[in-house]
Amino acid sequence: MKDYILRPMTLEEVNDLVTEAEGLKDFLPSRAKPDKTIMPLMTKFSKKDYFKIYGYVNAEQKVVAFITIFEENGSIDIGPMYVCKDNRGMKLGFKQVEDVIERYKTRGVKEILTQTWGENQASQGVFAKCGFKIVEIVENDRVNGDSTVKFKLEI
Ligand SMILES: CC(C)(COP(=O)(O)OP(=O)(O)OC[C@H]1O[C@@H](n2cnc3c(N)ncnc32)[C@H](O)[C@@H]1OP(=O)(O)O)[C@@H](O)C(=O)NCCC(=O)NCCS
Question: Mutate which of 69, 70, 83, 85 to test ligand 1's pocket (most atoms within 8 Å of Cβ)?
Answer without folding.
Answer: 83
